[in-house]
Amino acid sequence: MRRAEELFGRLLAGLALGGCAVLFLMMAVICLDVLLRAIPARLAWLCEWAVDALALGCCVVIAWYGIKAVLSSHAIGGMVVKVISVPEWWLLAPLPATFALLAIEVLFRMRRLYEGERAARTDAVTAA
Question: Exposed, middle or buried: residue 7 (CB in 10 Å: 0-12, 13-18, 19+)?
Answer without folding.
Answer: exposed
